[in-house]
Automatic annotation (TrEMBL):
Keywords: Carboxypeptidase, Disulfide bond, Hydrolase, Metal-binding, Metalloprotease, Protease, Signal, Zinc. One of its GO terms (biological process) is proteolysis. Its cofactor is Zn(2+). Residues 1-17 form the signal peptide. The lineage of its organism: Eukaryota, Metazoa, Ecdysozoa, Arthropoda, Hexapoda. Transmembrane segments: none annotated. It comes from the Eukaryota. Residues 69-327 form the Peptidase M14 domain. It comes from Rhamnusium bicolor. This is Zinc carboxypeptidase A 1. Belongs to the peptidase M14 family.
């Protein structure tokens, strides 16, 4: 058995030399070890940097999660079977990323899918960073991704429900807030006088109506026409293909003051705003569609103090877990 372990470790070591550009095809295994001998066997594998053990337990019958690259999965599973170690694959593809379009300035519009495999499962979809200056929104999306793919205790959250997130839906504007104008809100497409349009007024549902502007220098300029911006086109095109299994759409924005959230129609609680992504999602058949306004920095406006970022995303993550529970209860047939 020692020989088989050495062979696997050697195989994994051979592929360390190449740079890993993605985790496509990586599987995450959940192992149940019952004896000290099995624990010792896994301890030998921990010496290889390519097997990423997410759990460090050395106690029998406590699950151990490990991520394994595609080239080593057959050997890894063979080793487990020979040693009668019980396992299950809890993530078939650790990280699926997709470029669904490019911004006006040719930056990638990246979409991340987190799934345990299968197709046409009920899906939670979220866009973030559609307004460039709302920096806490991309942080929230990244925290969701982090909790799903790096926290093994959350594996049940993508067992029956897929998650799809766009961390930065307006990458040109987001970059511009870092390099030039902190309070920039719009895209960076060119026009005759002023740059950009408000992408959250550019969607083709009641486009150009109340709460938007026809003046191109206005922060709520709706664009020359519905979907004039390539950034909104990318989301539209993705939804055209996948909306039939997206059950919940969340547009992540900021900011409102404080951490006591009010639930209701945004047109009544905030203001009317035609041409938004959440309304468009509802119009193409997504049953549940919401906007969440994260807290700002109080007197600092959109500049949430760094020390407040973690507490904000942590408390909002609890809300997303509630979203998941509702979607799973409503749309997943747990008897199958």
């Amino acid at each position: 058995m020692k020989l088989l372990v050495v062979k696997l470790v050697t195989l994994l070591s051979l592929v360390v030399a190449g740079d890993i550009v993605s985790y496509d095809g990586y599987k995450v295994y959940r192992l149940i070890v019952t004896t000290s001998a099995e624990i010792d066997l896994l301890s030998e594998l921990r010496n290889d940097q390519r097997i990423d053990f997410w759990s460090r337990h050395r106690i029998p019958n406590v699950p151990v999660d490990a991520m394994v690259p595609p080239d080593a999965q057959t050997e890894f599973e063979t080793l487990l079977k020979i040693n009668a170690i019980t396992y299950e694959v809890i993530i078939n593809n650790f990280e699926e990323t997709e470029i669904i379009g490019r911004s006006f300035e040719r930056r990638n519009i990246t979409l991340v899918t987190i799934s345990s495999g299968g197709s046409n499962k009920p899906t939670i979809f979220a866009d973030a960073g559609i307004h460039a200056r709302e920096w806490i929104a991309p942080s929230m999306a990244l925290y969701i991704i982090n909790q799903l793919v790096e926290n093994a205790t959350n594996a049940h959250l993508y067992a029956n429900v897929d998650w799809v997130l766009i961390p930065v839906a307006n990458p040109d504007g987001y970059e511009f807030t870092h390099s030039n104008t902190r309070m920039w809100r719009k895209t960076r497409s060119t026009a005759t006088i002023c740059y950009g349009a408000d992408p959250n007024r550019n969607f083709g549902y009641h486009w150009g109506e109340s709460g938007s502007s026809t003046w191109q220098c206005d922060d709520i300029f709706a664009g020359r026409h519905a979907f004039s911006e390539v950034e909104t086109q990318a989301i539209r095109n993705y939804l055209a293909i996948h909306s039939h299994h997206i059950k919940l759409y969340v547009a992540i924005h900021s900011h409102v003051n404080g951490t006591n959230y009010t639930v209701g129609n945004s047109a009544e609680l905030l203001y009317t705003s035609a041409g938004c992504s959440d309304d468009y999602a509802k119009s193409v058949g997504i049953e549940l569609s919401y906007t969440i306004e994260l807290p700002g920095g109080g007197t600092s406006g959109f500049d949430l103090p760094p020390e407040d970022i973690l507490s904000t995303v942590e408390e909002t993550w609890e809300g997303f877990k509630a979203y998941h529970q509702y979607v799973e209860n409503k749309f997943v047939n747990l008897t199958n």
